[in-house]
Each structure stands twice: as C-alpha cells, then as structure tokens.
C-alpha cells in the first residue's frame, strides 16, 4: 500500500482513513486568499455505506487501499444468505442479506455483478447500471396513454415497487435504472 497526501486524491481512489475503507466520490482543491490550501472531499465508507464530507490539510497522509473487484454470478438465496459464484474459478461465497439489502431489490438468479473485496472482506455488490425486470402487479394499462402521464405504482418480480407510465401492463419487461434506487427507463 502506498502512502499519499491530499494532493494525490482523485475520484474513485480508495483509501484507509480513520480505521476504515473509504472511496473518494468528489474532491475540490481550495486555495483561500489567506492561509494554506486544503482539499474538501466527499468520501463513502465502503463498510457502512455512510457518506461524509472531510477536509484534508497539507500535512495529512493516508494509505491507499488495494481493493479487488470480481465478476460473480448470483445463484440463489439460502435462508438469510445469498450465494454468488466466481465466473472464473467457480468458487462460491455466501453474503448475508443485511450486507446487500439495497442490491436485493434488483437481483435475479444468474445475474452477473461485481463483488468488491478488501483483504477477503466483502464490501459491496455493484449492479449493472440497468436491469430488466418483469411487472408482476399493476393496474391495467390505459389505451392511448403516454410516458408523460402521471404514472402508477408497479410491483416487479423482485418485489421492488416503482412508478411506471400508465400504458405499462402486468407481464411487461421493463428496463430499470439501479443507480437511484430504481426508476423506470423504458420497456425492454
């Protein structure tokens, strides 16, 4: 692991700071008219998911964290555990539901995701930007409705509830954006 200072920060870098693992989401070098320069940053704790704003001063030093990302296939749920298989080695790992609760809203069997680890500790499940999910329950579609209408709730096959346009019917396959907690993008 390399030791770096505030001037080496960049978006996406993973560092060890305050006895935890953080990913740099944003940073801004600030040079006030009076006093020393500093860096304002937004960091995400990869263990807890918390996002904090942190200010670094010129003398601050921290180590980079060497994290690994592995393509893995979601296999099945076994009680409170969810089983994933490494696509290259076929090794399987079980992850508790509470550690990946946000990802479970989008996961289907056989879906490939990226598992982020640090020294063998599973930190995160990274989903594709969009997934295709089938509508299991919604009100009947309205003929002639457009995507600009008010929308209606729809329950998808993963039990995720999103707002969809009025023309969507049960059984339709939808493209859902995973970045913002799940939003309708289009029909598949």
UniProtKB/TrEMBL annotation:
Residues 69-123 form the Translation elongation factor P/YeiP central domain. Pfam families: EFP, EFP_N, Elong-fact-P_C. Pathway: Protein biosynthesis; polypeptide chain elongation. GO terms for cellular component: cytosol. Transmembrane segments: none annotated. It is found in: Cytoplasm. GO terms for biological process: peptide biosynthetic process. GO terms for molecular function: translation elongation factor activity. Keywords: Cytoplasm, Elongation factor, Protein biosynthesis. PANTHER family: ELONGATION FACTOR P (PTHR30053), ELONGATION FACTOR P (EF-P) FAMILY PROTEIN (PTHR30053:SF12). Belongs to the elongation factor P family. This is Elongation factor P. It comes from Weissella hellenica.
């Amino acid at each position: 692991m390399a030791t770096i200072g505030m001037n080496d920060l960049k978006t996406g870098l993973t560092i060890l700071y305050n006895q935890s693992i953080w990913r740099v989401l944003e940073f801004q070098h600030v040079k006030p008219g009076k006093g020393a320069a500093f860096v304002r940053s937004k960091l995400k704790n990869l263990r807890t998911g918390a996002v904090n704003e942190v200010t670094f001063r010129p003398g601050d030093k921290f180590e980079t964290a060497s994290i690994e990302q592995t393509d893995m296939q979601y296999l099945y749920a076994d009680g409170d555990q969810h089983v994933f298989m490494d696509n290259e080695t076929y090794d399987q790992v079980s992850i508790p539901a509470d550690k990946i609760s946000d990802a479970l809203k989008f996961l289907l069997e056989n879906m490939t995701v990226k598992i982020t680890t640090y020294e063998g500790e599973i930190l995160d499940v990274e989903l594709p930007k969009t997934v295709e999910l089938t509508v299991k329950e919604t009100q009947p579609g309205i003929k002639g409705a457009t995507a600009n209408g008010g929308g209606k709730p729809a329950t998808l096959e993963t039990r995720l509830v999103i707002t969809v346009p009025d023309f969507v019917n049960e059984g339709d396959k939808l493209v859902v954006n995973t970045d913002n907690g799940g939003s309708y993008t289009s029909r598949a």
